[in-house]
Amino acid sequence: MDPSIVTTEQFSATLSHDANSNPSNVAEPSETSLDDLAKGIASLLTTAFTDFDSKASDAVRSQDNLLFSIHRLTKELDQLLEDAPVPFILQHAAKISAVRRRVSSLNSLLRSIQRRLDNIDRTLSFVGSSQDKAKMEGPTQQ
User: Fold this and answer.
1) Is residue 68 part of a domain?
2) pLDDT: is 131 or 74 the higher one?
3) Together in a domain, 98 and 122
4) Which end of the chain offers a freer environment for a tag, N or C, measured as fewer CB atoms within 10 Å?
5) Ribosomal protein: present as a keyword of the record (predicted)?
6) Which residues contact 127 (CB under 8 A, 6 or more apart)?
7) What pLDDT score was predicted for residue 112?
8) Which residues of 43-69 are buried (b: 16+ CB within 10 A; e: fewer)?
9) Helix (H) or strand (E) segment spanning residue 40
10) Mean pLDDT of the chain
């Protein structure tokens, strides 16, 4: 397990240790407990974003496969229409075309969501790295 990831048990133990060390039993946040809290939240968010990113990628792949299948079926249907233009076939062709448009629209929406998640991930990574850099430089003197 990654040593930078803090489990809920470790975090709870840190909080209870901090609370027990204070005689008035009021937990004052120490720098280490705040760091542990930040690491815990960051690891939780990282896990959630990784999970969402994976599911969004799977959905995009699935949509691409579906779109490919619909394109293939549309071509086959066009071939059937050339051979036998029956009203029944025309009705189903219209339905398939409508489904194709909806799938394309949903695919565009999923790609937009994926880009937004990527932007959020980059922003969080940038904020996290700048906070880590600020901690390493230490407090500024005035």
Assistant:
1) yes
2) 74
3) yes
4) C
5) no
6) none
7) 92
8) beebeebeeeeeebeeeeeebeeeeee
9) helix 31-83
10) 76
Give the number of other Cβ atoms within 10 Å of residue 96's Cβ: 14
Q: Do the domain assignments include residue 13?
A: no
CA distance 80 to 103: 22
Examine the domain organization and report whether 73 and 89 are in the same domain: no
What pLDDT does 14 receive?
57
| Residue pair 103/67 in contact by the 8 Å Cβ criterion | yes
pTM of the model: 0.44
Q: What domain count does the chain have?
A: 2
What 7-15 contacts at long range (C-beta under 8 Å, 24+ apart), as own/partner pairs, is 7/40, 8/40, 10/36, 11/36, 11/37, 11/40
Flag whether 141 is in a domain: no
CA angle 3-129-28, nearest 5°? 65
Average pLDDT over residues 101-126: 88
Share of the chain above pLDDT 90, in %: 4
Is it the case that residue 24 has pLDDT exceeding 80? no
Q: Provide the domain limits for residue 67.
A: 40-83
